[in-house]
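Dear Dr. H.,

I hope your travels went smoothly. While you were away I took the liberty of generating a structure for the chain from your last submission, since the lab meeting agenda had it listed for discussion. I wanted you to have the full record in hand beforehand rather than looking at slides cold. The sequence, exactly as received, is reproduced here:
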Amino acid sequence: MLKQEARLKKRDFYLERLIAFKDTELIKVVTGIRRCGKSSLMKLMVRHLEENGVGQEQVIQMNFESMQFQRMNAEDIYRYVQERLPDDKRAYLFFDEIQRIPDWQDAVNSFRVDFDCDIYVTGSNAYLLSSEYATYLAGRCVEIRMLPLSFREFLDFHGYEVREKQGPGGELRKRIYDAEGESYAPKELLEAYMKFGGMPGIADVGLDTDKVLALLDGIYSTVVVRDILERERRRGQRQITDPELLRKIIMFLADNIGNNTSVTSIGNILVNERLIDTDKRNGRPAVQTIQAYVGALLESYVFYEIKRFDIKGKGYLRTLGKYYIVDMGLRNYLLGFRDVDIGHGIENIVYLELLRRGYDVAIGKIGEREVDFIATNAREKIYFQVTESMNEPSTRERELTPLRKIRDNYEKVILTGECDNPVTQDGIKIVRLTDFLLT
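The corresponding predicted structure, in token form, is as follows:
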């Protein structure tokens, strides 16, 4: 018996981006960590097409996770599609996890040149659009980077509804309601989001710790075994062969999200734990080896690297960037659920939210002080500080000081988990984290 399709849940933010590029010559490439919803997005796009007059015979779908297609090569894919092309109508081609097929780019490029078609591709690895592949697709594709659920999507997927209520002083405050009408403060649900994370599959198992951990274990094993170790073997690489070393580096980065980190500092710790040898020429950690492992984690979208920017000098710095993990639930699976380091957890959530909203993000350096995030796009620049609480006067002053030092007129915002009195001070907005995430 064939598997029944689960009910598709909306991901309007990403779907609207796909729709915006529909029927253009650009190849639509959706990237992101495994199980973040790329395949479901493809199905949502197919449904949109069919609801808007595209016939089923015009849609050709291939999921390369299926045994039906796994053993194909580029020529097989070309023949498969060619045999199914509709007569005198545009074809819509959907290729899921195509990076598993050697020389896939040859087939995709041929479709673009030979047929009247609109092409959609997903992949779980940044290598899909890097190195030699980029040469084939340069200027001919648009990348849509998909992340796990935002806080707003998390609420939607789990059946919660956000409503605004007027408080005693006339201010509007948000409340969240479940299907039974039970009311919650946004902070309560944010705590659940920070604990369980935003992998879409969690909505199918519910907010049960054991079930969520089992699901995250499957995601972690798939990413590490299939997307890193197996891929390196297929590429003929020999740098990433030790699963235990890979696990140690993952654990180190997960434990140090938001901390200034370098490949050298990772290497020094691993040498001290005798997990990696030193370079015989200089007695230092083998930086190239560690860089290869970290690079593989970035390629697989498990971690994201953020660079430092000198606000006064107006240039990027080479020293001490930071790493953030793609999903807080995955971090909790790796390290265990704990209440410490909430500040860096909040930072992690804000960083991913800024990426979702289309910003390029950097760490800001202003003299000896640091600004958590500089978020820029074609229209605006915003400086962000992120903190667990703004209720203590000393904390308030600490967070305001770096932003006061910036002399330009761009928007400056402090996002805080706790704040009794969110106001604008010295031109700097103080905003509750939940209000920002639900905007």
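Two observations you may find useful: The longest helix spans residues 209-234. Residues 386 and 394 are 15 Å apart (CA to CA).

With kind regards,
E. W.
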